[in-house]
Design a protein that fits this description.
Layout (H helix, E strand, L loop, with lengths): L10 E6 L2 H12 L2 E6 L2 E5 L6 E6 L21 E4 L3 H11 L2 E2 L8 E5 L5 E5 L2
Parallel strand pairs: 1-4, 5-8
Antiparallel strand pairs: 2-3, 3-4, 6-7, 7-8
Pfam family, one: Glyoxalase_6
InterPro entries: Glyas_Bleomycin-R_OHBP_Dase (IPR029068), Glyoxalase_6 (IPR041581), VOC_core (IPR037523)
Protein name: VOC domain-containing protein
């Protein structure tokens, strides 16, 4: 049996027409520090370590549709964010620039759209 090479997930990367604006939104949402800031790339890191969240310029970016229908640009990924209180966390997300999605599939989850249209879920146990 072949030995698996060491692999470490360092970040999830979101494409955006303006990575700095999107990074600013997530900086406000999480309070994470900016670790890397380049013209077409920004990385945020959590204070306690772990994988970061990066943003890169995509000139041909097409905003996803939630939920997607036939012929719509589908989301390729989304973030699940556990919170203590959906209402408090949702108000914080909206104040940072998120939009509550019209379609909500579950009672204990709230789907929001970031300023570039990426869906993310706030949820409680």
């Amino acid at each position: 049996m072949r030995q698996r090479p060491r692999m470490t997930l360092t970040a999830t990367v979101l494409d955006a027409p303006d990575p700095h604006a999107l990074a600013d939104f997530y900086h406000q949402l999480f309070g994470w520090k900016v670790e890397q800031d380049e013209p077409d790339w920004v990385t945020l890191r959590a204070p306690g370590g772990g994988p970061g969240l990066s943003f890169q310029t995509e000139a041909a970016y097409v905003r996803p549709t939630w939920p997607a229908g036939p012929g719509d640009q589908q989301m390729m990924t989304h973030l699940d964010i556990e919170v203590d209180d959906l209402d408090v966390a949702g108000a914080h997300a909206v104040a940072a620039g998120a939009t509550l999605a019209e379609y909500q599939p579950q009672d204990d989850v709230r789907v929001y759209l970031d300023p570039a249209g990426h869906p993310f879920c706030l949820w409680t146990r």
